[in-house]
Amino acid sequence: MTPALVRQAAAVATTATLAALAPAGHAQTAAPLKVGLMLPATGTYAALGDMIEKGFKLHVQEQGGTLAGRSIQYFKVDDESEPSKAVDNVNKLIKRDQVDVLVGTVHSGVALAMARAARESKTLLIIPNAGAADITGPMCAPNIVRSSFSNWQPAYAMGVVAAQRGVKRAITITWNYAAGNESAKGFTEGLEKGGGKVLKDLTLPFPGVEFQALLTEIAAQKPDAVYAFFAGGAAVKFVKDYDAAGLRKSIPLYGPGFLTDGTLEAQGAAAQGMMTTLHYADNLDTPRNNAFRKNFALTYKTNADVYAVQGYDAAQILGAGLKAVKGDIARRDEMTAAMRKATVDSPRGKFTLSAAGNPVQDIYLRQVQGNNNEFRAVAVKALADPARGCKL
Ligand code: PHB
Hints:
2 domains, Rossmann fold, alpha/beta
């Protein structure tokens, strides 16, 4: 290259770089949008938090690193799935970092504290997992929405399916905290509607994994089926312990899909053939899901699961709200109204939010095959949480 050509090439490159850096439209002068990610990075739910973050960032990346023209600045707190630290942790994001939006979390007990803080400070809160009934029930608020589920939704659907499959007498087993208890209750409601009943609700404290005495009790009672709510590292251990206790062949193990999502490689043979209900299945053969899974796997060298989908959709819901106000988050009422009006084009299938801010969605019956939770049927179509106690 002659010196003149070199100069010319450099000039072109500089112009191109500047053009790539300049945000479009309204946001030309706007500061980055501050997104506070409050998720577990340690403990039994650590992998779930990681997948949510990956999913959220993937959607932002697919939009060229911006949402409605606003670049994103992330602030992160590890909530440890520890309710006693939740108020301090959420205030790090609200008061110290002054985030525009809170995204979190996995554990219902921690999310309840986040919802209280969001109501008081009027900070926008998007919940990418925790299913606590109260959040979209008595505590519902315009500035709080979920991209995930209520604990009742997959649980109720599993109860309906179990009754259809002839289960008359079941035992539930879970951790004694909001998500576990609400899940057991939802299953009982679905099962009773179909003529079955729950003999006993077995519990242990979160995040305990000492299942042996409870498995002995199940073996003695010989129910037609067991319904279990566990997730993350503990779900791996429970499914393996259930198999090792010799119960898998004689007493079918059912659960919400959390029992087998993101866990199958570690559960191996112990999980094969298990039926669960959830708002996602790995092999949903739609262009939307296939494209999502392909990009996720390319970006992160690992396969997406339901938590990744929920993180991705949290970003989609935020994007829909921001788009309606052209990135101006100060127009919060218009923004939250737009989020509730949006049809979210999710890898799980399209869904909308209820007035209470919870997805109205199909719940699928899935079966474990190798390392996938494979779609078998729609267990309940367009299931809306009852949103008991929500006055909006
Ligand atoms: C919850 O605490 O609401 C919770 C945690 C993990 C799950 C599902 C629900 O997989």
